[in-house]
Structures are given as structure tokens and as C-alpha cells.
Amino acid sequence: MSQALPPANGYSQVVTAQPGTMVFVSGQIAVDQHGQIVGAGDLRVQTEQAMLNLQNALAAAGATFDDVVKINWYVKNFHGDQLPIIREIRARYLNQQHPPANTLAGVAELYPPEALIEVEAIAVIPNKSE
Amino acid sequence: MPATLALLLTLAQTEYPQSKDLPPANGYSHVVATKPGKMIFIAGQVAMNKEGKVVGVGDLKTQTEQAMLNLKTALAAAGADFSHVVKLNWYVKNFKTDQLPIIREVRARYLNKTNPPASTLAGVAELFLSDVLIEVEAIAVIPEKN
Fold it and tell me: Over the stretch B5-34, which tens digit does the pLDDT of each residue have?
């Protein structure tokens, strides 16, 4: 924590991690396992599905949200009034005591065009101490 | 060390786990997990030649090619190549879905096809020069030898 930084709502300004297995997850969007968009036009449903996909991707590498050190959001045509939706869903997945560092940017377009939000993450699984 | 041995070591230290719960990934991996090693962070590369002039004005294919060439050069400067890249981030000005085949085609010629890196793409409003159509940045890890 730093007294010189503003309060962080649901994320951490700074995260440090000891060396361990690093997990890089591609930007996840609201598609099902067949690649079909879920929740067209509905940011809440899409954020939920993207976080579920991120959870599954982390699990494939033996990681959980507790291991995530950085999370990046790309939101199509972002407006400030959408932030409560993203924060509410994000809070249900992230470790509330130690949330990751976080960046959000509003972007012009995602792929496919129905995608309203994309979320990517870096996780570090600490080495087991012996 | 022979290149093949180096490649084997890299593969042993870096995993590309699959998940049946995720959709198919076209030319990238959803997840890449790597053991600790030398980390390399490459600035966003654009289609500039070494004189700082934009190459391929108005031509996404040429710009993607030049940006990937610059990325390759930057990796080489750090003793790395595309087999070490664990993450790519693409920023495309005024991105439209019909541009994706161009990017995928160029990308595929540089990346390891069996084990490509994780990737994220975002369409953006503007890049740092108005003639620049695409920017690509990378994280690479050269695993420790052990």
C-alpha cells in the first residue's frame, strides 16, 4: 500500500510476486465452448461469461484467481456508468483481500463484433517451499 | 548448445494446456504456463523502418509484416526468438473483423504453429502516428537451464 496513491476500488495498485510458474491467459470474451457469443448486447452476461472462461483457462494451467497478479480489461464503447456492472462481477471472482493489479481501457472494437468486453490475465503460481 | 536441444529445453519448461471448456483458439493458445526464467518485455512495434519512416501507409498487410519483423529483431536483440514468446498483444486502428484473416496469415508465418503464444487483440481509436494501422507488443521468457 502507498499513501501517495488514490484508493483502489476492487483491485490493487501494486502486486509483487516471488518467482514461480507464470501463466499467461489470452483475452477471454463471452463465447461458449463452441465459440458462440453468449449475451449479445448484455454487458453483465458477457462479463460473467468472460470471467468463467478466464477461470477455466487458469484452471487448465493449475492456477486460480488467487494466483492472478494482473488483469486487463478492454471494453467496447466504454462509459463510466458500466463500471458498477464490471466491478460487481469482478468482485465475485477475485480474491477480495488481495485482488490483482488492474487496467481498464475503452476500445473501439473487439472480435467478434458482438463482443462487448475482453479480459486477459497474468498469474504466478508460487513455487512450493520445501 | 545445439538449437534442437535448446528447443527441447524450452518446450519442457513451457506448457500449453488445453481445456475442453474453452472454445477453439485460431492461431494462438488460450493459456501458456512457463517456469521462471529471463523475462523479456518488448515495446509495441509498428511498421517503421530503422530510419523511423512508416512502411506500408494504408496497407495493413505490409504494416503487419513490418511490425512482426521489428518484433523479431527486438527479440533477437535480447537473445530470444518467437519460440520464447508467451504473450502477444495487438492494437489495430479502426479494426474490422474482415481484417482478421490478414493478421492471422502474417502472424502464422512467425509464430510456432504447434505451440503459439497467448494473444489478445483490441481495436483502438488511434495509435501514436496517424499512419500507423497496427501495433504488436510481446512478453517472452527464456527458461532457466537446469
Answer: 555 555 568 999 999 999 999 999 999 999
The size of the A-B interface in CB pairs under 8 A is 110
Give me the number of domains chain A comprises. Answer: 1
Residue B4: its pLDDT value, please?
A: 59
Strands B118-124, B85-93: pairing is: parallel
Closest CA to B47 of B24, B72, B68: B68
Closest-CA distance, B123 to chain A, in angstroms, reads: 4
Give the per-residue pLDDT at A75: 98
Q: Is A63 on the interface with B (CB under 8 A)?
A: yes
Per the structure, the complete domain to which residue B96 belongs is given by 3-143
For residue B123, give the nearest of A21, A35, A107 by CB distance: A107
Residues in chain B within 8 Å Cβ distance of A19: 36
The residue segments making up the domain with residue A85 are 21-124
- Looking only at Cα atoms, what is the longest distance across chain B? 47
- Ranges under pLDDT 70 in chain A: 129-130
Report field, pTM of the whole predicted structure over 0.90: yes
Query: What are the Cα distances from residue B76, in Å, to B79, B82, B111?
Result: 5, 9, 14
Phi, psi angle pair for A11, to nearest 5°: -145, 175
What is the number of domains present in chain B?
Answer: 1
CATH number reported for the structural domain that contains residue B42 in this entry? 3.30.1330.40
ipTM above 0.85, yes or no: yes
